[in-house]
Specification:
With 148 residues, the chain is of the alpha/beta class. 47% of the residues lie in helices and 17% in strands. It has helices spanning 15-27, 38-41, 64-73, 89-97, 110-142, and strands spanning 7-11, 31-35, 51-56, 80-84, 102-105. Strands 2-1-3-4-5 form a 5-stranded parallel β-sheet, sandwiched between helices. The longest helix is centred in the last third of the chain and has 33 residues, at 110-142. It is elongated and about 60 Å long.
Length: 148
C-alpha cells in the first residue's frame, strides 16, 4: 500500500479554536477539515486516506464521549484525540479506555497536539495496512479450489 496523504478532522464548537488548529496543522502541511458539531462531521468523516479526529468533549447536542461511542458502534474506526477546557480524571479515563489516542487539556502546547496527531495518523495507516493484507489473504483463500 502506498503512503497516502492524511486528513485531520477537527470538531469543536468554538470557531476561534477551529481556526487556530486549522492554521497550525496547515502550517506543517496537513490537510484539515473543520466542523462545528458532530452532526456536521458525520457525512464527511469517511475517507480513503489515513485520518484522525481532533474532538472537543463539550459539543452542542451529543458530547464528544457519546460521539466516540456512536462512532465505535457504527464501526467507524478513526483515531480520536480529545481536547477539553473542562476535562477531569474520570472523563479522561473513560475516553482512553474507549480507545482515544490522547486527551489534551486546553490550552495545550502546539507540539503536544502535533505529536498526538502523528501517533494517531500512524495508527490509522497501520490499521488500514492490516485490513488490506487481510482482504488480500481472503481473496486468495476464496480463489482456492476445495482440494487445494
Amino acid at each position: 500500500m502506498t503512503k497516502l496523504t492524511a486528513i485531520v478532522f477537527v470538531v469543536d464548537d468554538d470557531p476561534s479554536v477551529r481556526r487556530a488548529i486549522k492554521l497550525l496543522l496547515e502550517s506543517v502541511g496537513l490537510e484539515v477539515k473543520v466542523f462545528g458539531s458532530a452532526r456536521e462531521f458525520l457525512p464527511n468523516g469517511s475517507t480513503k486516506e489515513p485520518s484522525c479526529l481532533v474532538l472537543d468533549i463539550r459539543l452542542p447536542g451529543v458530547s464528544g464521549l457519546d460521539f466516540q461511542r456512536q462512532l465505535a458502534e457504527a464501526n467507524i474506526n478513526i483515531p480520536i484525540i480529545f481536547i477539553s477546557a473542562h476535562g477531569d480524571v474520570p472523563m479522561t479515563v473513560r475516553a482512553m479506555k474507549a480507545g482515544a489516542v490522547e486527551f489534551l487539556t486546553k490550552p495545550f502546547r502546539d507540539q503536544d497536539l502535533l505529536d498526538a496527531i502523528h501517533v494517531a495518523l500512524e495508527r490509522d495507516r497501520a490499521r488500514r495496512q492490516r485490513e488490506a493484507d487481510i482482504a488480500t489473504l481472503q481473496e486468495r483463500f476464496e480463489s482456492l479450489t476445495p482440494r487445494e
